[in-house]
Amino acid sequence: MKSRPLLSLLLLGGCVGLAHQAPALPDRQIARPNRQFGLPFAGNPGPTTWLLGQGYGNTLGSYRQRRSLYGNIQGIHFGLDFSAPCGTSVRAIGDGTVSEVDGPHGSPPHNLVIRHAGGLSSLYGHLLERANVRVGQTVKRGQVVAKSGDSQGTCVSAPHLHLEIRDWSHQRLFNPLPYIAADWDTLALAGGFVRGYEQDLNNPRRWQTPDDQPQARRGGPLLNEYANPWPPAPVGAR
Questions:
Q1: pTM for the full predicted model
Q2: DSSP SS3 for 29
Q3: Stretch 151-166: mean pLDDT, rounded?
């Protein structure tokens, strides 16, 4: 989720605050990651198609905004950002049922949530337009369900898809990498977003690879409020 105008931020915060009242699902109701899902785009990645942008977790970008944009999700980037031209077809990552279209879960201007087996949901954010599916509709893995858009609504500022894997309650958010079958090592080599993770110099190897990133709980304490961070927080970090 890249930076966005103030109005979008207010919409995100306000809507999310109203949307997530159900208790979190316990571990026994959550499917273990087994690469059971697919990518949200078809075809090969590339400069004119799609690329992995910001990764999930303790990213440098989320650290700078750990107390503001990401403050309610323990300070980490709680999804994957895929750079893609506006209008790129977005596909369901797995079989499921549409549970919400433009629901109160942020990632404006449009979002979509699909409910899967095993207590999991996938959220597709910053869509170009309202998804052409209906709540209760069954969808299949790979089915086109929406079009990618831009978090700032211009199609030139930050065109990308924000993808999350959550529990059904929307309280717990998981690293999508072990759930999605893809060549993540290759995908992580290119892309338009700054690579890397914030380090805690008191524990410098923790959360430094794409696979090793923590799950987050809505409303929990910041995971990356480090006493000795590296790089240091730049002036103006929030």
A1: 0.89
A2: helix
A3: 96
